[in-house]
Write a structure and sequence with these properties.
CATH architecture of the largest domain in chain B: 3-Layer(aba) Sandwich
Oligomer: heterodimer
Largest sheet of chain A: 6 strands, mixed
Strand order of the largest sheet of chain A: 6-7-8-3-9-10
Number of domains of chain A: 2
Shape of chain A: globular
CATH superfamily of the largest domain in chain A: P-loop containing nucleotide triphosphate hydrolases
CATH superfamily of the largest domain in chain B: P-loop containing nucleotide triphosphate hydrolases
CATH class of the largest domain in chain A: Alpha Beta
Number of helices of chain A: 10
Mean pLDDT of chain A: 92
Low-confidence stretches of chain A: none
Structural class of chain A: alpha/beta
Mean pLDDT of chain B: 88
Helix content of chain A: 25-40%
Order of helices and strands of chain B: EEEHEEHEHHHHEHEEEHHHEEHH
Strand content of chain A: 25-35%
Radius of gyration of chain A: 18 Å
CATH class of the largest domain in chain B: Alpha Beta
Number of strands of chain A: 10
Number of strands of chain B: 12
Number of helices of chain B: 12
Shape of chain B: globular
Strand order of the largest sheet of chain B: 6-7-8-3-9-10-12-11
Low-confidence stretches of chain B: 333-344
Largest interface: A-B, 37 and 42 residues
CATH architecture of the largest domain in chain A: 3-Layer(aba) Sandwich
Structural class of chain B: alpha/beta
Amino acid sequence: MSQAKLEVRDLRVSFAGHPVASVPELNVDGGEIVGLAGESGSGKSMTILAVLGLAGTAGAAVTGSVRLDGQELIGLSAARLRAIRGRRIAAIFQSPALAFNPVFRVGAIVSRTLRQHGLSGAEATGRADAAMRSVLLPPELLDRYPAQLSGGQLQRVAIALALALRAEVLLADEPTSALDVTVQAEVLELLRELRDSRGMAVLFVSHDLAVIAELCDRVAIMRAGQVVEQGPTGQVIAAPRHDYTRELLAAVPRLGE
Amino acid sequence: MADDILLDVRDLRVSFGPVRAVDGVSLAISRGPFGIALVGESGSGKTTVGRAILRLVPASGGTIAFDGQDVLGLRGPRLRAYRRAVQIVFQDADNSLDPRMRIGATIGEVLIALGLAGRGALGGRVSARVTAQVSALLSEAALDPALASRYPHQLSGGQRQRVAIARALAVSPRLLVLDEPTSALDVTAQARILALVRRLRDERQLAYLLITHNLAIIPGLCEQMVVLYLGRVAESGPTGELLARPAHPYTLALRSAVPEVDAAARRSRIILPSDTPQAGSTPPGCPFHPRCPLAIDVCRTTVPPLQAVAPGRQAACHRANEVLTGLRPPGAPAQLAEDPGRPR
């Protein structure tokens, strides 16, 4: 059995003994997008935080295993995690405006992050410019402040940062929920591009099964902290086995109706 | 004909300094039960139209008539009466409910302030009559009346939005402005809110203006729709026809951006280059031409007038008739354009 880029096994996240997310098995390989779907409170975001090694900072207890290329991340020292988080495993979140410090220019935030991960100043500038172009943004935007960019532009800068660091895994937590549908379409297209041309492994969290259906190769459906169903997206959508999946599907608004 | 019109907005203009956020928008809202959608991206001016209707921002031009009476000149008690008839539900119930007030007090306050429930004391004990009305309103919004004793933070986002709707209903409005009421919710909560609006529409004979960027929530809720781009109407008409056969390339793009669960229903996506330009830096010619995949020379120089393209339908596009008859951007197959009763 070949090893996936990111392997989650028996992951359990709990607060004060109260379990909030439990994922028995989830693999994300390079060149694929795996969806994690469910309502608010289903444990999707806690799963992402646990994979990032950040659930502990939120006060949660985490057990189980998260492996990147076979290397166990759970229990790794803070320093060694920092070298991986951001660089090898990047993350983008629902509200890009909250991910950028408003008092610094976007370029300053990007280059500081790149230098923190060992790039020289010149390298950082070059990579930042190239990454901006690959997310279809003019590098001049780096001179602006976060408030001067739209939500869609900021989300693309966050993706550019992952690209500049040559991240292997991208964790995307509702990255398009706060965006217009037109901008959402653009960001989804960009994520497909990362999967196809850069072989990135993407774990994509969303409450919207229509978005999942369009984007993800496989999907895991979460409810109340448990994975209730998982499989190839087409199969899960076409023949859902769990009532909850059917419920989620029924909630998706359709233009044709 | 005109007797059917509850709210008539003509050539509405709203400026913020030099920025023309709303630049000549007209729309007519029939008496309830009736739904009309106002659609567009961030920055299109749709929220500003809604706020201008409520007199929350001043109009710099145009007219608004409610029941045949001028709205923009209303003052004092008549403005108060108008604001009772027209209520708004905002996108973010987190910010529109007072975090320090219990749900019951939030709704009861409206009843007391408007003298609709006899006398009562605001933070203290409220009359049994207010309590009874609050319970009835919560039930009507499909909430457990016991939630009246809770604070907003103890409720889910969907529940909070229901409270906002219950509060709007407290004054028995005739028109609701729903400003992106489900954008902050997940799809399951969204479906419940939309079902609630549909039910209230029939039970209360409500008319509403639904402001949204998501075309998918409009069918089944709104008979009419108006598509805004940079403060101007790009296209308007009956929902079913307009969605099935858009006359404006912008509507085509909005439609294609809707994610679809069924692979069969997926249209070739038209990705619009770059974000909406800022209102205030409107380009010469058609405001949409820099992003339009179908732009030709005339679009770069001449503003297309909003004109009739079919019965009950208007569009502001030099190529509206071509688009209506199937012109599509390269890469978007024409057979998807017709969209004859797609299988679900």
